Automatic annotation (TrEMBL), chain A:
It comes from Ferrovum myxofaciens. This is Tol-Pal system protein TolQ. The chain crosses the membrane at residues 12-40, 130-153, 173-195. One of its GO terms (biological process) is bacteriocin transport. It comes from the Bacteria. It holds the Pfam family MotA_ExbB. Residues 82-210 form the MotA/TolQ/ExbB proton channel domain. It is found in: Cell inner membrane; Cell membrane. Keywords: Cell cycle, Cell division, Cell inner membrane, Cell membrane, Membrane, Transmembrane, Transmembrane helix.
UniProtKB/TrEMBL annotation, chain B:
Residues 64-88 have a biased composition (Pro residues). Pfam families: TonB_2 (PF13103). The gene is tolA. Residues 57-103, 115-137 are annotated as: Disordered. This is Cell envelope integrity protein TolA. One of its GO terms (biological process) is bacteriocin transport. The chain crosses the membrane at residues 13-36.
Length: 231, 274
């Protein structure tokens, strides 16, 4: 069965012309990479979402922000994105306190800048590889189509050499060419779906970070005033 | 930044494994999906065989009614040969007991006692003989009855065989008649079509008859050259008819394969009327 079949997948791929084979290899590589990124993003985004939810819960439940900062600074390995934003902001706040800056506006803006920098770094990390997924989603169908067109061109050129044109002469060429399109679509469809999904997820996460940053800077501003009065 | 790279590294291995799994699954689905398409391939081969088989099958179907009928009579034929022996044996036992009876009384004449004893013995013997005779008679009767039964059975068998034979003959005759009718019908249709396509030039006298053997291909096409068996005597009419035959391709043929075979070489008589 496997040996005699003319239209087995393996023989289709092996009998294809070199250019089509290159296209198919490229698409396979791209598909593998995009799936790897899909799973990487799925796992990292899920982790980020869980860590963010956990830290928000802890932040609003605790009364001692200093203790939270100590813990956040202590274990960098397991800290989430929001925890790192909080840590950078609070560190900046503590530095201002040590140096004895008295202007509230200067402290607040300094803290916000520090948090903004960390926030951008974190969102960049969350959005990493999303561009690759978008590129795969938009380009790989065209690459597959190119392979198909080339394969069909070859099939018809082979047909010109044969006196009597039958479907049997063209069918293998067209089938092998269509494998390229199938692979392109197989790479593109999950990439597009994953890109849309993950872009939406990162947007939601970053808006959560931003609202936390605003709230946290407000809290710090309120904390700074009693310290100023004490001096 | 180095922290972030560390975070992704633990995940990346899993991601690679999952990605490879997905691709393996996809390839498996494709391979099995294509293997489904292989099954229809032998099917058309079967169809080609089917188109070849009916021809011999129908040929045997037409002939069987004749060979089937001779078989039943072959069985009853030995039966009557077996039946006569019992009939011949029946007269023989009848003649035997009669001479035994007069032989015994002639031997006894000396004393009354002896006579009595002998008479008693004779009576016994006679009784025994009578019993034997009865037994023999019963046996004979049974044998006769058996023979009669066998004869009756044979007669029944013969009758049944005859009935079957007649039925088969009738069926065969009916089939032949139906076939002949169908052949005539299609011949008429062929001739009509040829007539419709024949343009007889003017000046050809009426009453001409052309006999032609046409070799008809299974698709209704005509294999050239058409053989003229008996010319009409007027070459103009002959040529016109030959042209008409070629023009009326494909000729109407029965859809039945067995019937169509009878049209391989068709003898046609074309009569010119005005």
């Amino acid at each position: 069965m496997n040996i005699t079949s003319d239209i087995s997948l393996v023989s289709l791929v092996l009998q294809a012309s070199i250019l089509v084979q290159i296209v198919m290899g490229l698409l396979l590589l791209v598909s593998l990479l995009s799936w790897t990124y899909i799973f990487t993003k799925m796992l990292t985004l899920g982790k980020a979402r869980r860590q963010t939810a956990k830290f928000e819960e802890e932040f609003w439940a605790t009364s001692d922000i200093g203790a939270l900062y100590q813990r956040a600074a202590g274990h960098n390995e397991n800290s989430g994105a929001l925890e790192r934003i909080f840590e950078s902001g609070y560190r900046e706040f503590l530095r201002h306190r040590k140096s004895g800056t008295l202007e509230t506006a200067a402290v607040t803006s300094g803290v916000q800048r520090a948090m903004k920098a960390t926030f951008q770094r974190e969102t960049d990390r969350l959005e990493s590889h999303l561009a690759f997924l978008a590129t795969v989603g938009s380009v790989s169908p065209y690459v597959g189509l190119f392979g198909t067109v080339w394969g069909i061109m070859n099939a018809f050129r082979g047909l010109a050499n044969v006196g009597q044109a039958t479907l049997a002469h063209v069918a293998p060429g067209i089938a092998e060419a269509l494998v390229a399109t199938a692979m392109g679509l197989f790479a593109a469809i999950p990439a597009v779906v994953a890109y849309n999904r993950y872009a939406h997820d990162t947007d939601r996460l970053s808006s959560r970070f931003e609202s936390f940053m605003e709230e946290f800077s407000n809290i710090l501003q309120r904390q700074f005033k009693p310290a100023q009065n004490g001096r | 930044m180095p922290e972030t790279i560390d975070h992704e590294r633990g995940v990346r291995l899993w991601a690679w494994i999952l990605a490879l799994l997905v691709h393996a699954l996809f390839v498996a689905v494709l391979v099995f999906g294509v293997s489904w398409q292989r099954h229809p391939e032998p099917a058309p081969m079967m169809a080609e065989l089917w188109s070849d088989i009916p021809k011999p099958a129908t040929v045997t179907e037409v002939t069987p009614p004749q060979p089937v009928t001779p078989e039943p009579p072959a069985q009853p034929v030995p039966a009557p040969v077996l039946a006569p022996p019992p009939v011949a044996s029946t007269p023989a036992p009848r003649s035997e007991p009669k001479p035994v009876l007069p032989a015994t009384p002639s031997a006894a004449d000396i004393a009354l006692k002896k006579k009595k004893e002998k008479a008693v013995q004779e009576a016994k013997r006679q009784a025994d003989q009578k019993q034997r005779e009865k037994m023999l008679a019963e046996q004979l009767r049974q044998e006769r009855q058996d023979a009669l039964k066998e004869e009756r059975n044979d007669a029944k068998m013969r009758a049944d065989a005859e009935v079957r034979h007649r039925q088969a003959e009738q069926l065969a005759q009916n089939a032949r008649a139906a076939q002949a009718a169908a052949v005539d019908r299609y011949k008429l249709a062929i001739i009509n079509k040829i007539r419709g396509n024949t343009e007889v030039p003017e000046g050809v006298p009426a009453g001409l008859t052309l006999e032609v053997d046409v070799t008809i291909l299974p698709d209704g096409g005509v294999l050239e050259p058409v053989r003229i068996v008996k010319s009409s005597g007027d070459p103009r009419y002959d040529q016109a008819v030959l042209r008409g035959i070629l023009r009326s391709q494909p000729l109407p043929l029965p859809s039945d394969v067995a019937l169509r075979q009878l049209f391989r070489v068709t003898h046609l008589q074309l009569h010119h009327e005005k």
